[in-house]
Amino acid sequence: MQQTPSEHPHRTVKQVETIMANPVMRARVFTLAPRDVIPWHRHSEVTDHYFVLRGTLTVGTRLPECCNELRTGKRFQIEPGTDHQLTNNGPGDCEFLLLQGIGSYDWIGCPDPN
Question: What is the pTM of this model?
Answer without folding.
Answer: 0.86
